[in-house]
Amino acid sequence: MKLSFSQSSISKFKLHITGSKSISNRYLILKAQFPNIELSGLSDCDDTRVLHKALTTLKEKGDEIDIHHAGTAMRFLTAYLSSLPNLEVVLKGSKRMHERPIGILVEAMRELGGHIKYLGSEGFPPLKIHGKSLQKDKISIPASVSSQYITALMLIAPSFKNGLTIYLQSKVTSKPYLMMTAASLKSIGVEVDLQESHIQVHPKTKIEPKTIAVESDWSSASYFYSCLALMDQGEFELSTFQKNSLQGDSKVAEFYKLFGIETRFKGDSILISKKAGVLLPEKIELDLNDTPDLAQTIAVTCLGLNIACNLTGLHTLKVKETDRLVALKTEIEKFGAEVEISNESLQLSPKANLKESVSVQTYQDHRMAMAFAPLAIKVDLTILNPEVVSKSFPDFWEKIKALGIQQNR
């Protein structure tokens, strides 16, 4: 898809962003355990649809669940399905999903009494799961690899007879996601004690009927922050968002102050604005350990604004839909800039005059497509395999078209 920008487009507009994938998927696992939870505003992305389908069509014997590229679904279902007595199921995904490690979570489930067999390479999906009634109430798990492993355990912990205490080994990565999980559990009446060294989730056999409205996705909002940062000026109204959000990526509002973007709340919407002539820094340095999904967006914003950056805390990016650090280096350098990466950092040395008509490979990664799309405001480019956005933001291309980013397939 070729992208270009029409300077005559309006710089003021409103749009509604789909519900948070992270919150939606947590509540879907909780609803499976407590059916009297009612959910509104669920994300309409592929990952949530896949998880919802898996949970609503589950059979006891001989079932096979294909979650495609949905990493969250793979982690959450590995734990949840292992806790269902008498269940036999094969859990598989795409080729890339079978390259993404899951050994830490599988070993934790086995230690709790689960029965999981690898059908391919050791430590990786696909998995054959025989559900068991899990009785143990303590587990230790490395906390620096993926917060989703810990969240998966937290979400099934209320069903344990004595609850579950999870001891955290090493520094926690993406801590806001664990806080989101704890808040989701507390919202339905589950008692949770979240500490630096451990998390204790108390047992719960039933809850009062509850209706949950899912907040819109701050990660998706980040691409519109990037668009506005790359424009001379403008104001966008985005809904539906909460001032005290559960989502770690709500920090995008703080980060984009560096690019001259102001955020204010108006009811259940946010107004983001940029004035003409904003003075920008020559370089920014950010630790994104708690918000790694913002790394691609911020790096491309810096590329478009000719700002150097040093982004750290990115060790989890290597095991996402693609190795995002390598992918960022490869694609950014096509525009003429220089990028250095390590196992957990990215340093960008920008270029004032970007190369035109670059084709950006997306590597089956939705965030590569959406992070680079705003760059069309500065330079014509082509996004390859643009349909990958359906993983988290199905109507993304329709939304940014309203900004004047023209699309030719």
TrEMBL record:
Q: Which residues bind 3-phosphoshikimate?
A: 21-22, 26, 146-148, 174, 293, 320
- Report the transmembrane regions from the record: none
Question: Which part of the chain is the Enolpyruvate transferase domain?
Answer: 55-400
Q: Which HAMAP family match?
A: EPSP_synth
Name its cellular compartments.
Answer: Cytoplasm
Pathway(s): Metabolic intermediate biosynthesis; chorismate biosynthesis; chorismate from D-erythrose 4-phosphate and phosphoenolpyruvate: step 6/7
Q: Could you tell me what this protein does?
A: Catalyzes the transfer of the enolpyruvyl moiety of phosphoenolpyruvate (PEP) to the 5-hydroxyl of shikimate-3-phosphate (S3P) to produce enolpyruvyl shikimate-3-phosphate and inorganic phosphate.
Protein name per Swiss-Prot or TrEMBL: 3-phosphoshikimate 1-carboxyvinyltransferase
What reaction(s) does this enzyme catalyze?
A: 3-phosphoshikimate + phosphoenolpyruvate = 5-O-(1-carboxyvinyl)-3-phosphoshikimate + phosphate
- Organismal lineage: Bacteria, Pseudomonadati, Bacteroidota, Flavobacteriia, Flavobacteriales
Report residues binding phosphoenolpyruvate: 21, 71, 100, 148, 324, 367, 391
Signal peptide residues are none
Protein keywords? Amino-acid biosynthesis, Aromatic amino acid biosynthesis, Cytoplasm, Transferase
Instruction: Name the family.
Output: Belongs to the EPSP synthase family.
